[in-house]
Design goal:
globular
Length: 94
């Protein structure tokens, strides 16, 4: 059985904060940066919701994964992509 990295946990909140810091360090173009920030803001809003939508959070994580997949695979990008991919792997669609 795969352990879920629940969206209601403090660990998930920490993961999102870490992703935000990491993505700020990656040389994204303006469109990618706006998209990544929108995804992270949406995830943040869902975390604050009394009824967070797993499907919305998952869609944002997939979007972040796609943005990172389009980047040259430098160490900082690879590490951030690994975090997003790990979360997606441990949190299959409901």
């Amino acid at each position: 059985m795969t352990q879920r990295f629940g969206i209601e946990t403090e660990e998930f909140k920490n993961l999102v904060a870490d992703l935000r810091r990491r993505i700020e360090q990656i040389p994204l173009d303006e469109t990618q940066r706006v998209e990544a920030n929108a995804d992270l803001s949406t995830i943040g809003a869902q975390i604050q919701s009394p009824d967070p939508k797993h499907s919305v959070i998952r869609a944002c994580m997939v979007s972040l994964q796609n943005i990172l997949n389009d980047m040259p695979l430098e160490p900082s990008t690879a590490a951030t992509l690994a975090l997003v991919s790990f979360w997606l792997h441990t949190n299959p669609p409901i």
